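Allow me, if you will, to draw on your knowledge of protein folds for a short while. A protein sequence and the structure tokens that stand for its backbone fold form the material at issue. I would ask you to consider whether the tokens describe a fold that such a sequence might reasonably adopt. Thank you for your consideration; the sequence and its tokens are set out here:
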Amino acid sequence: MANQLSKIAVGAGLLAASSAAMAADKPNILAIFGDDIGYWNISAYNQGMMSYKTPNIDRIANEGALFTDHYGQQSCTAGRAAFITGEEPFRTGLLTIGMPGSDHGIPDWAPTIADLLKEQGYMTGQFGKNHLGDQDKHLPTKHGFDEFFGNLYHLNAEEEPETYYYPKDPEFRKNYGPRGVIKSYADGKIEDTGPMTRKRMEHADEEFLESSLAFMEKAVKADKPFFIWHNATRMHVWTRLQEKYQGKSGVSIYADGMLEHDDHVGVLLDKLDELGVADNTIVIYSTDNGAETMTWPDGGATPFHGEKGTTWEGGMRVPQLVRWPGVIKPGTKINEMMAHQDWLPTLLAAAGVPDVKEKLAEGYKANGKEWRVHLDGYNFMPYFEGKEEKSPRESLLYFTSNGELNAVRWNDWKLHFATLEGNLSNAVRFAPNWPKIIHLRADPFEKGPSESQMYLRWMADNMWLFVPVQDVVGEFFKTLPEYPMQRGTAMNPASLNYDSLKMQEKLQQLDKVEQEISKFK
């Protein structure tokens, strides 16, 4: 009996050692997202031009890399969906913001970073804004996360019940009103902690911060690698600050909010130091979409043309700073193109699955489920490690919130098939006979078409681009029939235009015909 107990003890010791080794081998991952953070609202980018400083966010760049050509999407939901699924939001149907009462959200066939990291032994937690669906089936804890504590919508939607004209009928509120701030767990437990009121907005990010810190401690104590997606509500409208931050910057209410947001980033970084895991933790800082300039002064700043909701650079190019000890050298500047979709395959490579894109294309089991999807992201780890000179991403598609393909970036060139002229709320889509051509190194702020007297002559010299760029579009649409897809929704039904979906239906029909023909070969 004593001998058997000894064997059990030795076995338990080996198991514990194996668990500790796994935690040591696999990096922790802390992804910090702001909300509607302008490219120019971080002092590492604006170089002090806006007078206030964001030293903690800047610290990530100083100890890692600053990206100049990183892309989110044109809306909150689309940007978050691109990051967590690694797929174009056109595939997942998550192109525009999720609204209270809607049944539309993240599909059950789309694996998330959390789903895939669970298979690698990670503890997974999401805290703060989700915005990927209103129903229980859309909660992060139904999509690979062990724990979730956060809100489900944009802040101005959550304060609608406190506005003057909002219906007082309880039945209306039940059917169409926002849910409260949700706490949920992978075992199915769901708790509504109460509404996100205007008053609660002053302190909500502190609540989410405490949850992220507690989850870090729990994972480290358990000797498990962790993936935390921390989603602040700052700086989405409307900014409601606690008294100690009001007027602190001396610049604007947005700048005051940025100081609070930066302080919270500092607390997260300090916690990694305190727990002794900073050297084995990948830290990503970014945001969902371009700056919302139409609500200035309670809105972000960007040097690029356009804003959130448009497919100009100002609508989709976002700040990104990454600290990756032992992989990215401190003080690095990265000018290569990268997008949120690229993080899923990159982080899985860091966790030991460098071929997750290929595996998912064929069929891959993770977190107790069989997945088969086409990832639109690329593994950047070889590039970050210096094994490749160029990034693996050569192109980018710019979809509107209504599912229209407005533009394509191919290397340093960008072609606008159509443009959204106006701001987030009143933009009108124009589709000219000839696509607008931009060289994003020669004209990064896209001023040429509207300000240069020589633009038309220059554009005519570069019409050779039309064919290779059409090939980029064709390659994307070829992948649609073979893999799952969800139709998107639109804020304005009058603007629904799913020509691309019609193309998908035709491709599916063609695929069936080809399958039938192959039977006779």
